[in-house]
Amino acid sequence: MARLSGLQRDVLSLYRQCLRAVKEKPADTRSHFRDYARAEFHKNLGVGKKDFGTIEYLLRRGRRQLETYQDPGIRNLH
C-alpha cells in the first residue's frame, strides 16, 4: 500500500471524525447524517491531488461543518 500524503491523511481523519460524530446522534436520524457526510465527500472526489488550495479550503469548511453538526441541539438534517 502506498504511503499517504499529509493532506490525504487529513481528509481521511476528517471523514472518520464525521462517522464517529454520527454515533452521537439519535438512532432514527443517524442515517441522514451519515448520508450527508458521504455525499459531501463524494461530491468532491474530482478534486485533483495536487490542488492543495482547494483541498485545504474543503478541509477547513468540513471541520467547521463538523463542529456545527456535533452540537447536541442539532438532532436532524433535512
UniProtKB/TrEMBL annotation:
Presence of keyword Cell membrane: no
Main location: mitochondrion
Regions annotated as coiled coil: none
Residue ranges occupied by any Complex 1 LYR protein domain in the UniProt entry: 9-67
GO biological process, any: mitochondrial respiratory chain complex II assembly
Keywords: Chaperone, Mitochondrion
A single Gene Ontology CC term: mitochondrial matrix
Family, similarity comment: Belongs to the complex I LYR family. SDHAF1 subfamily.
PANTHER family associated with the record: LYR MOTIF-CONTAINING PROTEIN 2, SUCCINATE DEHYDROGENASE ASSEMBLY FACTOR 1, MITOCHONDRIAL
Protein name (database record): Complex 1 LYR protein domain-containing protein
Species assigned in the record: Epicoccum nigrum (Soil fungus)
Taxonomic placement: Eukaryota, Fungi, Dikarya, Ascomycota, Pezizomycotina
